[in-house]
């Protein structure tokens, strides 16, 4: 087929963790190429790059991928103070799960029972402030590629195969490839998948789980909670659990309180109802009256901070296999359905119970950047890179999503297998993360490049 002589141009819509990870990878590839074979632009709806949420957890898979993106040193410095505290005082503990032992309201609360503790002395684990983490990525993206106040309304495919983007401010832009990283309410996903999925399946699904968030001063909480304040801790109970972890170099304790209603098989929210709403302290505290002393200490501190907000957690329906590939829609061969993959974990396609939302966004951004920056890629063959990306990522991302949902059932004692066997709970938690944390970015990128190169040879 005839090929254009102009460079491939990539439009990245959305500048959260996923979009920035892709941009960092593309910028690094441009620096590494003597004559860059592509250009790219990042379109962000807000006035600046920003993320919702306070903390982000980074495990070995995400850390290795950040290193492959050239950000290992910067992230290591950000995480250093927390890591030093962990090594010094916590015997290498990274995560502890504790089963709440209910007590009589008239009796004193007891200690929680430890279900499982993870120690990972050879791996870097850290929980850091999300805004500071984002700043590391922003610094690695050339400022001239960013366009702000650009909320995508729609796109269309022109006769020459280019993608035309239409923005809310009345402007438009052209690209050879559009990668949607614009969040769970993506403008691209429903257009791309129209006709492939039922209309209801195009919309985010309310999971029946809500959460409440708070940031507490560590100087106040550490004396009350002891060493548990300095590592990630989950307090587990029926249809509820509480997660705490330190951020901001140990200055702040991030608290997330999860509450699930499993009485309705397919819960929904009224059309147009907000995903975040103010609630009373009484509503937030309901059902925790008999929880342990540590939990009540946390809850009392949370209710004193500010007006509680309830976050309704949503996820996206799985994409069918016929919607995955370089031509997910016959009319849109140059649109990557990366809105399903490239995102952080706040109100995202995957529930946050395994702490992998941000990691999936980073992994996907890295992998896609290695494919779209391939020196032999042209505007005409760009769909082949998207196909190689989808083939490499779909099974892992789907597995992360499904196992995260299943872990929510396990953590809140609603899984029928684990329910009556605490030993199985401990066994599940011990073995759950090995395959997740074992992802090797360079190996996976090489596999995807081999797939792409084989397709390029066939298309020549």
UniProtKB/TrEMBL annotation:
GO terms for molecular function: oxidoreductase activity. The gene is SPOSA6832_02529. It comes from the Eukaryota. The keyword Flavoprotein applies. GO terms for biological process: secondary metabolite biosynthetic process. PANTHER family: FAD-BINDING DOMAIN-CONTAINING PROTEIN-RELATED (PTHR46720:SF3), HYDROXYLASE, PUTATIVE (AFU_ORTHOLOGUE AFUA_3G01460)-RELATED (PTHR46720). Keywords: FAD, Flavoprotein, Oxidoreductase. It comes from Sporidiobolus salmonicolor (Yeast-like fungus). The keyword DNA damage does not apply. InterPro entries: FAD/NAD-bd_sf, FAD_monoxygenase. Coiled coil: none annotated. Transmembrane segments: none annotated. This is SPOSA6832_02529-mRNA-1:cds.
